[in-house]
Design goal:
The chain is mainly alpha-helical. The chain has one domain. Helix content is 55%, strand content 8%. The chain is built from 7 helices and 2 strands, in the order αααββαααα. Strands 1-2 form a two-stranded antiparallel ribbon. A hairpin with a 3-residue loop joins strand 1 and strand 2.
Amino acid sequence: MTNNKVFNSDTELLLRAILVLSKFSNLNIDQIAEIDFKVTYGRHFGLSDENLHGNNEFDLQEYSLRRKKLNDAIVKGVLQGSVLYKEQHKKGFVYCLSSKGEMVVLDFNSKDLYFKEYLDNLNRIQVPAENEAVHFSDNLSNKLWVKYFEN
């Protein structure tokens, strides 16, 4: 099955994962997913004034599906040779960039506004602790419920 969509396609998710891994290394999939989500929806997490993917009432609900699709994208990156993996006892698989992945980053158009804003947000974020990243989806759900049931 071919993915003809541009937004949140395997290719787009892999490119953003490569950007995350260009800044941080040895991250597990949960950490990459949380960082990417916070960077693209930076307004919700105090990283920027605007969300890179716009504002809508369901944006925070996107995380679970994006996390699953990101895993598929990372596998694609490993198979293509742009992402390397290793197994660590407690973290499971962790990922870093290969030299091919580093070349992909160098090929990004540094004048592209999305790229610049993504990197700006990425430079404002810290790597989440492993236990925080595992529970990020639950924390988002709690945030959603509070949002809908506040007075």
